[in-house]
Amino acid sequence: MALPASHASFVSNIPPETHEKVMRAALRRGNDVFLATAFLKQSGLNRLHSDLADLLQRRGRVTAVVGLDFFQTEPAALFSLHTLEEKGNFQLFLFLPDLATFHPKYTRISTTDGIEALVGSANLTSGGMEQNFEASIFYRARPTSLFAAECRAFEASLLAAPRCRAARLVDIELYRERYDAWHRAVDTVEKIARKRLSRINPSSVIGRYLIAYRISAKDQTDFARRKRNYTKARAVLRQIGRPHPLSAQQFRFLYERLVGAPGQKGLWHSGGLFRQKNFVIEKHRQTQVLIRDLSRNLHLSPRDLFALGRSHSASIPNLGTNVLTEIMHALRPQRFPVLNNNPLTGLRELANEKFTTPNSFKPDTYERYAAALIRFGGGIGSADFGTIDHFLNFIYWQIKDGTRGRPTQSYAA
């Protein structure tokens, strides 16, 4: 089917329009071809070789400019391409390496009524032709169009460049020797590099940060302070949860020890809890009942204790999951983790464990969250939720910062 005089389409190797399919169809319509590719491999040339040979037998013309940068082009493919000279009007040029990389992926094919060009990211390799994720534009224009003139100017500039040389067999053989020498050396280094890369994985990264965490006097001092504070918080909660009701003033005094007040740090470590304290204090009797009921049911699973807490907190404005789980954790730190954005972010970024926002947690979600923390803790040799939470904060902020405290790694082979 004839294409319109002006036509553009996107080619990305997503079937059915692969680079190979587009190029082969164009070659079968063409009579003059100009190829410029940064890298050429036999696997890619094999897909086009017969169509190029057929075009030459139809008395067409083919010009190919191939880059030699980084020794990516295969000498065997150059020798194979050179044999097309026997088929007809074919010229092969080598673009010699230099500081500026030769990097085009350009094919222009002239037909009886126009030109067709495929320009984009795909080299003449099997990956570029079909297997890789690529992005190119296939464009058809009249031979008298500005686009056609710009194509001719680009091709002329390549052929006129000092680095562009007509390929002789001796030039290809010289390149082959350099290619072999380069790859012998690179293969040796690559084996060492692959061995080193195999040691770098999420577990090894976390393991190195665990060493840095354990030897950090500042962080270990901070964690010891946190543990002491949660022991103190447990004692405060026992006072709040006594059978005899507290007055609002008595409750405020004890609750502010937990969440803090202006000029006073709280025993709990989640941020911003004191801002909602007045709403909780207004419902101090219901909050005392909540704490009392939780204290009596610490044998329950994380799911069931969370559900019990939510059944009470629904009647206490602004007592969210953060405060609820701070209470649960302070009462039994070995069984019930604190829930806030920091450990959720750490689990997402470090362990690919994804959860909803804290206040949308259901009892089943909290159970799954506790299990995810235990799994992460297994990798660092700890089943203590306080330790896991503190370490998640440490490693997350170290990685996010990018440099501060980053543990060093030995690169010995």
Neighbour order of strands in the largest sheet: 1-7-6-5-2-3-4-8
- Per DSSP E runs of 2 or more residues, the count of β-strands stands at 8
Largest sheet: 8 strands, mixed
Bulk shape: elongated
Structural class: alpha+beta
- The low-confidence runs, each spanning 5 or more residues with pLDDT under 50, are 408-413
**Tally of helical segments:** 16
- Element-level helix/strand string: EHEHEHEEEHEHEHHHHHHHHHHH
Distance between the termini: 60 Å
Radius of gyration equals: 35 Å
How many domains make up the 3D coordinates? 2
Beta-strand residue fraction = 5-15%
Relative helix content: 40-55%
In round numbers, the mean pLDDT is 92
Q: What distinguishing features does this structure have?
A:
single chain, 413 residues, alpha+beta, Endonuclease, Chain A, 2 domains, 8 strands, 54% helix, elongated, disordered C terminus
